[in-house]
Amino acid sequence: MGAAQMFIDGKWTPAASGKTYEVPNPATEETIGSAPDAGVEDVARAIAAARKAFDEGPWPRSTRHERHRALMRIADALERRKEEMRKLLIEEAAATYIEHGIQVEAPIEQARAYAELALRFEFEEQLPSRATMGPMGPQMNSGIVYRHPVGVCGMIPTWNFPVFVAMQKLAPALATGCTMVFKSSPYGPLINLFLAEICTEADLPPGVVNWVTSQSTAVSQALCEDPRIDKVSFTGSVATGKAIMAAASKTLKRVHLELGGKSVGLYLDTDNLQMQAMTACGPAMFHAGQGCAMSTRVLVPADKHDDFVQTMAGFVQGMVKVGNPADPSVMLGPVIREERRTKIEEYIATGTKDGATLVTGGKRPKDLPKGYFLEPTIFANVKNSARIAREEIFGPVVSVMPYGDVDEAVRIANDSSYGLGGGISSSDVGKAVEVAKRIRTGVVWINNGLLPMTDAPFGGFKESGIGREGGKWGMEEYTEVQQITWKA
User: Fold this and answer.
1) Does the structure show a pLDDT above 50 at 217?
2) 247: which residues sit within 8 A by CB, 6+ positions away?
3) Across 195-208, average pLDDT
4) pTM value?
5) Could you give the residue ranges of the DSSP H alpha helices within 61-178?
6) Fewer CB within 10 Å, N side or C side of the chain?
7) Which domains, from first to last, does the chain contain?
8) Active-site annotation, residues
């Protein structure tokens, strides 16, 4: 493909205006490339292509095996170009090597898993036969439930785990026979255009997959409002999710929203203090806290609070190397942009004002004048009423909160407008499962137990979103249910 081009209707194309914008490396602030800065006319062209491909093209009527083959080709292409993908994720998304399991490997596994789901998903389900009284007397009735592809999908993925998140939309949509228009985050256009390149190897009909890059919110709004779009799938902030839902409501299109979180890491005991404290530091180092389901509220028994906090602080001070993600020994890279770093610093300032104790971090590393870096930051004695405990910071900041008993811990966990993820640590798994059932979140991981997202549903309660991704639940999100009945 040529430089700075989008993929629309099976062809590489610049923005109609010819505009592009530069993309920086968050660790060096150096420009790594440029992307088309599309306008409303460009997304309209992409929507028209996807609509035609759905209404007139062969893809919605393709066989299971054709969909399986396309997804396997995508997986094979990602595997073949994995090191190229890795390099781009390091440079554009600031993905440290510790994250590459989810950033690099998981999308390949996702594509293969959805390829297999395409072969075994129940698109047609037999309904029970029933005898009823018809106009001519008793009759026997039979029927099926048939799952149609939902139609043309507007996909708006996020920037933090860009290939992983995009694949959670792309793969089930292809597996169910949908067509789609992707509008990438302005923070992650290059990796999205790389994924568009990968899709060209799947031998898909023109218009099935289209990719638009833009800095304009008007482009996203047009995608959500256009009556030719049947469904919108968005991953990102609650505020943007609400705006997307409002825009989509004008045509009552289907909406899937995977939004933010303020998840709890609940420690029912501290029998393994060193390991548990290290795990609790996760959001302060893993992808610089830029993850929606990270447990940024850490709940520990009040009598263990001080020891727990000091152990956490010792770990991040002595073990967490901050720097350029291109260095495999680095654990904590930069946040994605300067404006995000400034916003995180505003949150850090409110922490002490609200009475929390800043234990470690909170500043810019003195030895890293370039790049959008922040120190891993831990607050102790945090009240759940504090802003740092209630709002999603999306940075390397963890709030540790003492609790008296399990009932109080559950109340704190549920006292949030969010309900995405959460974790429980306990030597008594049975007890932990019972506590998990009391927590109002879409996911609870116990003792770091984790199933692949292709085997289990992922999504949130409350303002953390609508709908689920992963496995058959993710497939169902891209179908419409039709009842077909007949007199036997």
Assistant:
1) yes
2) 221, 224, 225
3) 97
4) 0.95
5) 64-80, 82-93, 100, 106-120, 162-176
6) C
7) 6-259+465-487 (3.40.605.10), 264-452 (3.40.309.10)
8) 258, 292
